[in-house]
Structure to design on (79 residues):
C-alpha cells in the first residue's frame, strides 16, 4: 500500500489536486488498517477460515483494480 500511496498516487493526480488525492488514499489506508482487526475478530469467531478468505478476496480485488488502472507512468517524463 505504501508503494501505491507514495509513488504512484502523486504521479496520477494533476498538481492542483495531488495533495487531496494522496490524502484520500492515506485516509483509506488508515481506515482499513483500523477495521482489519475488528473484522478478523468478528468473522473469526463465526468461521475460523473467514479472515484468510477475506484477505485472499482483497488481494484478488486489488489485482483486478490494478490491472484496470488507466494510467501507466513507465517511460513518461515527470513534470
Amino acid at each position: 500500500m505504501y508503494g501505491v500511496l507514495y509513488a504512484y498516487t502523486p504521479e496520477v493526480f494533476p498538481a492542483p489536486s495531488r495533495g487531496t488525492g494522496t490524502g484520500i488514499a492515506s485516509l483509506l489506508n488508515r481506515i482499513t488498517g483500523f477495521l482489519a482487526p475488528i473484522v478478523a475478530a468478528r468473522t473469526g469467531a463465526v468461521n475460523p477460515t473467514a479472515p484468510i478468505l477475506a484477505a485472499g478476496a482483497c488481494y484478488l480485488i486489488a489485482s483486478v483494480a490494478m490491472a484496470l488502472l488507466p494510467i501507466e507512468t513507465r517511460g513518461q517524463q515527470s513534470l
The mean pLDDT is 81. Helices lie at 2-12, 18-46, 50-67. Residues 2-67 form one domain. The two ends are 24 Å apart (CA to CA).
